[in-house]
Write a structure and sequence with these properties.
The complex is a heterodimer. Chain A is built from twelve helices and 13 strands. Chain A is an alpha+beta fold. The longest helix of chain A has 16 residues, at 244-259. Chain A is globular, with a radius of gyration of 23 Å. By secondary structure, chain B is mainly β. The chains are: A alpha+beta, B mainly beta. The interface between A and B is large, with 71 and 32 residues.
Chain lengths: 351, 35
């Protein structure tokens, strides 16, 4: 919303948004499932984003929400479907509700989710690993649903803190990455793709990023480390215990780094702290990992408004270090500049 | 950043209870230009 200059409501049915500058994805963002546009009553307008009293004015209304346990949605009998549309269409169209209620049970452990499906306590379960999905093979009643595009996973490098402030060190980290080994360890549904864009995106530019992808060249990494003046200083890899694929991919990366002679130190913390550190540059880390979901579809403009607002991300890819020598100075405090945007953990993952 | 991979959503479902389940997520919410 940083590009919004002002709003106008010339009549009860017209809402005009004036932008300060061109934003190619603004209309797409208005219908984002991550940050959907909603109309708030005046009584709620000053509340923080996650403290708004949710009631539900669409086809469903809120029934009951016990955080960390379950969420119940009830059919909203006061809702009027768009009879002019043939079918539902994203957030719009003709939305017909055939169910009295929908219950979401929050079950963190994947085996427990699968057991809930197998014992008919759940009708749909999310986030299956490939190994667990095999247990449904041959079952006449239970099946799997694969969805692409969904998200993209990245290693995020802190480009203003200690070792990784040096581009040569960052290049060395890139050289050790063996994608297939990482995917085998995480066990999640995935596809190899060098691009920051999904192949279905209109911004997709083919395989131009291939030469930077899946390098698996520890010898080249060693040469870059030598050129950088690396002398066994500790490189901090930070991850979390909440998302197993993030933890496992960081553990595999640490082994790949060790093969190139890097003194890799893995720190496993909780996702909320990990996420805050990722966004703010705090926590004295060098490498972490997360996923981005809408920027790979919406393209460069959306990437610009997410990652490039991180205070610790090098804004200029052509930048070079003042010296190629390594430095252990921590600039995480410097990175915490006033006005830097912070968001909560769940929103970051599904950005 | 260093790209790892495109990750998908893998769900399990009961075909008797929710037959005809289709992928939705981003393809449905950002579908204006996909048509």
């Amino acid at each position: 919303m940083a590009d919004v200059e002002k709003y106008e409501t010339p009549d009860p049915y017209t809402f005009i948004v004036h932008l300060k500058s061109t934003n190619a994805v603004f209309v797409d963002l208005l219908k984002s499932s991550t940050y959907p546009l909603v109309v708030l009553p005046a009584s709620q307008k000053d509340k923080p984003a996650r403290e708004v009293e949710i009631i539900g004015t669409g086809p469903f209304k809120l029934g009951e929400w016990q955080k960390d346990s379950h969420l119940i949605l009830l059919r909203n009998d006061a809702y009027s479907a768009d009879e002019t549309a043939k079918d539902s269409d994203g957030f719009a169209g003709r939305k017909t509700v055939y169910l009295d209620s929908v219950r979401y049970n929050f079950i963190p452990e994947a085996n427990a989710r699968l057991a809930a499906l197998q014992t008919k306590k759940s009708d749909i379960i999310a986030d299956l690993t490939l190994d667990l999905a095999k247990r449904l093979d041959g079952n006449a009643e239970l099946s799997t649903l694969k969805t692409f595009p969904y998200c993209q996973q990245y290693f995020v490098l802190h480009s203003t803190n200690g070792l990784t402030a040096n581009p040569l060190i960052r290049q060395a980290i890139r050289e050790v990455v063996n994608v297939d080994d990482i995917l085998a360890a995480t066990g999640i549904l995935s596809q190899r793709n060098p691009s920051l864009l999904y192949p279905a995106s209109p911004y997709y530019a083919g395989d131009m990023a291939t030469k930077y992808y899946d390098r698996k060249d520890p010898a080249k990494a060693k040469a870059l480390l030598k050129q950088a003046g690396y002398n066994g200083e500790k490189l901090v890899l930070q991850t979390n215990s909440n998302y197993s694929y993030m933890r496992d991919s960081i553990l595999v990366l640490s082994e790949q780094l060790k093969e190139a002679g890097v003194n890799a130190d893995v720190q496993v913390i909780d996702w909320m702290s990990n996420s805050n550190n990722l966004q703010r540059g705090t926590g004295n880390w060098n490498v972490s990992t997360t996923s981005f979901c809408s920027p790979p579809l919406l393209g460069p403009q959306q990437w610009k408004s997410t990652v490039y607002t991180f205070p610790h991300i090098d804004k200029d890819p052509r930048s070079t270090p003042r010296s190629t020598a390594c430095s252990n100075r921590s600039t995480s405090q410097r990175a915490r500049r006033p006005g830097s945007r912070s968001r909560t953990a769940s929103s970051t993952r599904l950005t | 950043m260093i790209k790892v991979a495109d990750t998908g959503s893998l769900r399990g479902y009961n075909m008797t209870r929710v037959g005809g389940l289709r992928p939705y997520f981003y393809l449905r919410f950002f579908n204006t230009w996909l048509k």
